[in-house]
Specification:
Blueprint (H helix, E strand, L loop, with lengths): L11 E7 L2 E7 L8 E7 L2 E13 L8 E7 L20 H14 L9 E11 L6 H15 L9 E7 L4 E3 L11 E7 L4 E8 L4 H29 L13 H10 L1 H8 L4 H19 L10 H18 L15 E5 L7 E7 L2 E7 L8 E2 L8 E2 L26
Parallel strand pairs: 5-6
Antiparallel strand pairs: 1-2, 2-3, 3-4, 4-6, 7-8, 7-9, 9-10, 11-12, 12-13, 14-15
Helix pairs in contact: 1-2, 2-3, 5-6
């Protein structure tokens, strides 16, 4: 038997200081079959970020099929799962939220007409309580996509901004979180901030604004490091089959049928608006269908782009879609004791958007035991969010809860 020692000839490492802690990135040792992979260490928090794209576009879709998975494993915090099989199950709520945190700033930077499946997977391998696994995963995901051959108008990087009442905290440590009065996640490119997610205890606007500006400055060295990685090991971006769109038909509709779409949208009743749009689509099909027989394949995108033009035109003229003034909110309504027998219920209405909330009280023994990589191990307040298909007027059967819920 012949055994050879495995060598990693393409192994590269980079390191920098990021908010007082070392940020290390490694390429070329793990997950060699992906389009790209980056092992990221921030402090001792370690995440393997990988990205894989399908070779061919997915047929029959009108959107970019991107999936971001934030995979938490309890070995990252030295624990064994508490389930019967002693194995992790479906992602926890914080893991789903972490996936969205990475998805939101990255999705708009991919080409809108790309239809190849792209999957970004972030495997959390170790957690240092002073270094956020979400931020580590976001930086790793951005680096992996940037050095891959997948078209991407990045890079991005992320940071957590805090405030203790006297000074700003950037990527607060475990001890600093005890006095922190706001938690703002900022994601940005070199030129622009692309996402802000915030919770705060009534922080003044000027403090929030200045903190975001400083956070953007703090991200520049991380973005420079990713640019350096691209220059040294980045792959040429692949050519892809651009999703078809009838630009000629769209320009014809903009020039000749724009007023008709304005009429469709000039109402504060969503049901009336949808009825008008359906009538407009039928009329356009009768008028242009012979010349453009496949126009219905592009109609969803045409409607989106045309309605976007209408909204922009009206906003610039000081008008909103439903006729409200710029400082006017929709009609509000609130009722309590809507459902008999339950511990508490309330119905809140804003325009045509409604929320029915029902409360159940119990003893402390009913608290939920949590099995995640985060510090919280028990939850006494549980908020179950359900959005059935009828709430948006869709004809779709309700199955198990979705990731959105």
């Amino acid at each position: 038997m012949i055994i050879k020692h495995k060598t990693f000839d393409n192994l590269h490492r980079w390191e920098m200081d990021f908010c007082g802690r070392p940020l290390k990135m490694e390429v070329g040792r793990m997950a060699e079959l992906c389009n790209a992979s980056v092992l990221v260490q921030y402090g001792e928090t370690t995440v393997l970020a990988t990205v894989t794209a399908s070779a061919r576009p997915k047929d029959g879709i009108d959107y970019f099929p991107l999936a971001v998975d934030f995979n938490e494993k309890l070995y990252a915090v030295g624990r064994i799962p508490g389930s019967f099989l002693r194995r992790e199950g479906r992602p926890s709520l914080p893991a789903v939220l972490a996936s969205r945190l990475i998805d939101r700033p990255m999705r708009p930077l991919f080409p809108s007409d790309l239809r190849n499946d792209v999957v970004i997977a972030c495997e959390v391998m170790n957690v240092d309580r002073d270094c956020s696994p979400e931020i580590t995963a976001m930086i790793g995901a951005a680096a992996a996509v940037s050095i891959s051959d997948i078209p991407f108008n990045g890079p991005i990087a992320g940071i957590v901004l805090g405030w203790d009442g006297e000074k700003y905290l950037f990527n607060p440590t475990h001890a600093e979180k005890a006095t922190n009065q706001m938690t703002v996640t900022v994601a940005a490119t070199h030129k622009k901030i692309v996402m802000i997610e915030a919770e705060a205890k009534e922080i003044p606007d000027d403090i929030m604004y200045e903190g975001i500006v400083q956070a953007h400055e703090k991200l520049q060295p991380v973005l420079d490091l990713i640019d350096q990685m691209v220059a040294e090991v980045g792959k040429p971006k692949f050519e892809y089959e651009h999703a078809a769109f009838d630009d000629e038909l769209f320009e014809t509709l903009v020039n000749n049928e724009f007023e008709g779409m304005e009429h469709c949208m000039d109402t504060d009743d969503k049901n009336v608006r949808e009825a008008r749009v359906n009538e407009w689509v039928t009329a356009m099909q009768e008028k242009y269908g012979e010349e453009h027989p496949d126009m219905m394949n592009y109609m969803d995108e045409i409607l989106y782009k045309l309605q976007k033009k209408v909204v922009k035109k009206w906003l610039l003229a000081g008008k909103r879609v439903d006729g409200r003034a710029m400082n006017e909110i929709r009609p509000l309504g609130s009722e309590i004791d809507v459902i008999p027998g339950v511990h508490g219920s309330a119905l809140f209405t804003r325009g045509q958007t409604q929320v029915l909330s029902i409360t159940t009280l119990n003893t402390l023994s009913a608290a939920q035991k949590l099995d995640t990589i985060w510090e919280e191990d028990e939850k006494r307040f549980m908020h179950h969010y359900n959005m059935p298909s009828y709430s948006t007027g869709e004809a779709r059967a309700s199955r198990s809860t979705s990731r959105r819920e």
